[in-house]
């Protein structure tokens, strides 16, 4: 996952110019007219020593009027998704203090950037000065970004390093149906495979119908079987009980840092009642098919397993969450393969603060299939 670097500041303080300078491209529209940027604009780039990052250019935090207030709200909301905030300013006052206070309260890394430093010395105590007319500014700023960016944002811990070792055989069960992307594997499968390669484990791929033959071809039982969550029932019936079994979504859920909350929240599925509302959060945007896991398979599994008439709603991408989350009995987050751990936490924090249990696609499907304990057993030593 690419760490996010957000640019925040008043209107016309030079945020868009800084984006263009960092990327070496005319990505953001630059104008002397204040308020040119109206919505967050995202652009990927590579920073040596960190890797790929996403720059998030935002609207001015001092915008005015009813429409301006909405823009300010969007800019402040973008703070929750970034791993590092660049706070640009030419004068220091309440808008800057508001951003600084938010970062301090939410433990978000912050760089105070004195913008347009070629015109006048900035007030306050900048961490770095920047001017698009000073060729050295870009390198100085990037060096500062390297120093301040949390290492955890771009160097994730191993997904399976505490349960899989060198030479261990791991079987990855990857169904190919209408919901599978054309000509490639889904990101969680790729991430688990790369992790196994880094661990020098031996990975084998198969589809659910090929699993029995794959296991029979081994001289001994595999160390672990990882399956797509939607095939849990079929795979669990094929894999001997003494062989550890989990899913790609469960593996990712553990890496994202909310695993204990997921475990607690998943166990509340059995307490759902007729008419309860369940909110499903999908971080990516994809074409919906009749085999869609979030909109079709998981809601059906929840109703079948609980025997209750549940109202299931799906919010995709980064669309805002409903204002009144307390009306939901459960929030279920997807695996989160395309977003960072900080974004997952920020996405679910309002639900947790409202006292709403949270779960994860893989864990919820494991519960519905009756193999929740088995799917998490191999990770119990960490809980």
Kindly describe this structure:
With 383 residues, the protein is of the alpha/beta class. It folds into three domains: 4-153, P-loop containing nucleotide triphosphate hydrolases (Rossmann fold, 3-Layer(aba) Sandwich), CATH 3.40.50.300; 169-251, Rossmann fold (3-Layer(aba) Sandwich), CATH 3.40.50.11420; 256-369, Rossmann fold. The chain has 13 helices and 14 strands. The protein has helices spanning 15-23, 65-78, 94-105, 135-148, 187-198, 211-217, 232-238, 248-255, 259-266, 293-306, 341-353, 361-369, 372-377; strands spanning 4-9, 41-47, 51-57, 84-89, 109-114, 128-129, 169-173, 202-206, 224-227, 245-247, 277-282, 311-316, 330-333, 358-360. Helix 11 links the parallel strand 13 and strand 14. Helix 10 (293-306) runs parallel beside helix 12 (361-369). It is globular. The model has no long low-confidence stretch (mean pLDDT 87).
Q: If classified by CATH, what would the architecture of the largest domain be?
A: 3-Layer(aba) Sandwich
First-last Cα distance: 25 Å
Structural class: alpha/beta
Please identify which CATH superfamily of the largest domain we are dealing with.
P-loop containing nucleotide triphosphate hydrolases
What would the principal axes of the Cα set say about the shape? globular
CATH first level of the largest domain:
Alpha Beta
Mean pLDDT: 87
Helix content: 25-40%
Secondary-structure element series: EHEEHEHEEHEHEHEHEHHEHEEHEHH
Q: Radius of gyration over alpha carbons?
A: 23 Å
Total helices: the number is 13
